Each structure stands twice: as C-alpha cells, then as structure tokens.
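We emphasize that the prediction below concerns an isolated chain of 191 residues; any contacts that depend on oligomerization or on bound cofactors are therefore not represented. The input was used exactly as deposited, without trimming of termini.
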Amino acid sequence: MQLENGEKMNFNTKKILTVAVFSTLTCVANAQPVDSDRDEIVDSRDNCPRTSVEIIVNNQGCPVLETTMMEQTLEVEVEFDTNKAEIKPEYNTTIKFFAGFMKLYPDSKAIIEGHTDSMGSVVNNLSLSKRRAMALVNELVNVYGINIARLTAAGLGELSPIRPNNTAAGRSQNRRIKAHISIEVKEKQMR
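Result of the prediction step, given as a token string:
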C-alpha cells in the first residue's frame, strides 16, 4: 500500500485475520451455555423453556409425566324386572351422571357387568346378563355419545349375588348392572 507522501507500507493481513478468528473462537469456547429456566437443560435444547425447577424434566426440558391408573367402582343402581334387559326410565338420572363422569375423564374406560338372580338356567342367565350390560353400553353410546371403544360389556349371570336369592327382595337386588371405571391420570413428577 502506498501512502500520500509516497512511502510504501506492507501489512500482514494474514496475521491480523488469524488473530481475529482465533480471538473469536476463544470467546465462543469460553462462553457458558444458558439455562434460563434452571431445569438443567440448556436453552438451545430446551423444548419447554419455562418449566419450574421443582419439576423433573426429560432430555428436551419438558416435564416428565407419571401415568397412574385409578380404578373407581360405581354401583350403577339399575335393577331389572325378571327375565328383562330393558332399562327403566327411572334410572335415566343415574345413567346421565355416569355418562357425565366418563365425559369428564375422556381417557377413562368402563367394564359394565350385567348380573341376574338365580332363577332360570345358567345359560339363559349368562345371556340375559350380557344383554343387560349391552343395554347400558348402547344407551351410553347412542344417547350420550360415549365412544364404544371405551366400553366393555360382560355378562356374569348369577355368579356374583349381592343378596341371597331365597327371597323376592334379594333376587330383585341381584338383577343389576355394576360398572368399573379405569381412569388414566398423568401428573408432572416433582423433584
């Protein structure tokens, strides 16, 4: 390079460039990764940047969810006439409550058991108890819009009486439906 007064100056541009690149690399290498939410996952890998420090997180910085199954048994107070599988209108409120519970927990599933008294043959009672369970399944699906994949009907016949079958009152209480609901609950794991 020539100056105004005619003198020549030589610059070693390679050295300056090398020093600048080395200096920049040194600064980057010494920089500490940032973890804004202090969950031990650096921000560049953190897919959930606002998790609390009390919550256990996965390698992406998102909360680890613990799945637990909660089983609730509801005695659905639906009794049937002898040798019948039709649900009487007087049980509509009970069924509406049951459907509402299932809608409140959309991941819940139910096993609906139909039962009979000991009158009649074992084969007939098994068939009748299955029809009773299916009567409730059909009502939940057709009236309340519960997905049938969430419902299982089982006919147990006279195998599980809740009262002795030697009186009319006992037999009446044994002609019933019982439902078991399983609910999958997901909760954040805490440290």
